[in-house]
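Async update (no meeting this week)

Hi team, since we skipped the sync, here's where things stand on the single-chain job. The sequence we agreed to prioritize is pasted below, unchanged from the tracker. I ran it this morning and attached the output directly underneath so nobody has to dig for it. Comments welcome in thread, and please keep replies under the output.
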Amino acid sequence: MSREAYVAIIGGTSLDGLLKNPRQIRIGTPYGFPSSLQIGEIEGKSVAFLLRHDVGHSVPPHKVNYRANICALHEIGVERIIATNAVGAINLDFKPGDSVVPHDLIDFTKRRYLTFYDEAPVTHIDFSQPYCPEIRKILIEKSKEITERVLDSAVYVCTDGPRYETPAEIHMFRKLGGDIVGMTGIPEAVLARELEICYATLCFVSNMAAGVQSKLTTKEVIEVSKSVMPKIQQTLIEVIRTLPRGRRCPCAGSLKEARV
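Output:
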């Protein structure tokens, strides 16, 4: 395993330009090639940036090669992943433009590869804390320094897409305790834990979910994304600056008692 970066950011095209002196790299994995991957610097630290939907936002959420993406980051030595996600608000107290650092998730995907462990040894990772508590703490602290409204607790519901959800689905998710809904948080969080990589996400509310507003449009999502992205970028820079080199979280030992 090469040690090119200890920290990675997974996000969209709106984060282009975050890295200093970026260079494109291409890595093959047993699961195929990952999305566009760069190595560069943030605050003097080597950081990887993975463009989740690839160049030109050409890959829909249900077709992202999540296993190749996480495997490639592991191959270059990444120990921590900070993701970003645009989400719809299920919780009526959340509003477009809010930053959200979720603490739990519900998986409603149906057709994604959810694990690296399809064969022996049979592996059951503990997912009592789906997101790394160490990264979450720093994300919350730095977000509150930079952004006006930050929700530091939320349940993320992940659907397959690419369509938006129906009002009945959103009503069901709300009854189940969901606060926000997106299409990309699973299986990233699971796969990272399976490789003992810390993972947490900084979400931003791009719209109210179906049934709360009369119509959902991608144009609205893009416009809100553009408006919040400067603060998201600033937050990511501060988080990278603050992250300690050593890890004091349970993520690093997630396989220790997981295998049969």
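Quick observations from my side:
The chain has one domain: 7-253.
The two ends are 26 Å apart (CA to CA).
Reply here if anything looks off.
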